[in-house]
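Troubleshooting: if your tokenizer reports a length mismatch, compare your output against this known-good record of 278 residues.
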Amino acid sequence: MNKMKNAMTIDVEDYFQVSAFENKFNSSDWDDIAPRVEANTNRLLDLFAEKDAKATFFTLGWVAQRFPDLIKRIAREGHEVASHGTMHKRATDQSRSEFKADVGDAKRLLEDIVGEPVVGYRAPSFSFTKDNQWVYEVLSEEGYKYSSSIYPVVHDHYGIPDAPRFRYETESGVDEIPLSTLTVLGKNIPISGGGYFRLYPYMFSRYAIQLFKAKDQEPYIFYLHPWEVDAKQPRVEGVSAKTRFRHYINLKRVESRLSQLLTDFEWSSMADIYGYEG
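Known-good structure output:
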């Protein structure tokens, strides 16, 4: 068991807010859908408490506004509250002014709830690209210290394959902390959780993390969504076979796998591991 602490990160959003379902659920209708994010996030908090693990919760402003007691629990139990924007809109789909309002409003709302500075941000769907690097200037203007919005892999919806693999400082002074990858034959293989954690057998995930840590000597960054521990969530009709596969595969296995992951490695928040303070 590797004792170096690693970053556990949770993107706090409900199943109907994911980008893959954006054509099925208009944000104006979200309030009419029975929410599941509060119960699912509480399940994760219970598990983290049982395993004595800390995490960073990149939280949607929309969720925080409706469930402030959940956000207070996250902070009270020693986890980091960070921002996922307000409405889960990809940065690539926003103008500079829209993005500024989205990340600024979310930060102020979260800070009002927890009474502490919020310094971290993750873009929905890892939607920072080579063409919208101005986003870091906006994050700096709004008082953020770091982002974790780049996945240096080839993917049909996100990714900058040739981006640095580890924390680096952008021209605006905001740090970017990319998701973890394993380099194999010169290519970056995604190993940071989410759908890959559900797709790969757990033994492979554990081996990949151990190999990453042995080769790169860096903290490993894992991410998950609360809906991924919810095998009983409503099935969305009329989506493509690829979307259905990606969203629903092995949901029933996630909680037990996550429990084992929390046992096999040491976990803390991004702020703790990288030394960020408010």
